[in-house]
Amino acid sequence: METLELIKQADEYTISFEDFACLSEEGGLIDLVNLFSLNIAKLYMKSEIEFELADGAMNYIFGFMTDDIFMNFSGNFIPSPAIDIYDAFDAGEYQHSGDSDGTCPIEKYTKPHLIKLLETYGS
Length: 123
Prior knowledge:
Layout: H1 3-12, H2 17-21, H3 29-45, H4 51-65, H5 68-74, H6 82-91, H7 105-121
């Protein structure tokens, strides 16, 4: 399945967690969520997908990582960089305490965090 199509299905929750888990290969579910999350971050930072689509797909990934399917596989471990990418998009969803009304949380929190993550985990 093409990455963009899978991102759309994740954003719309039209792929079940069971079907998503079946996409994992030899590396297992941890590699699946990390690689998928990195792809989302890269596409967003290259302006190939909008914030809302990337954020929605990462919300799906967070739900998947906290579901029994993943937790039983991982031993209740949520891996990086997937959780860090989720946190970066989550931080862009709302105005933070102490920020002025004109502050864009995506510009202030999401993008700088993603830049650091992609530098660390490969861009």
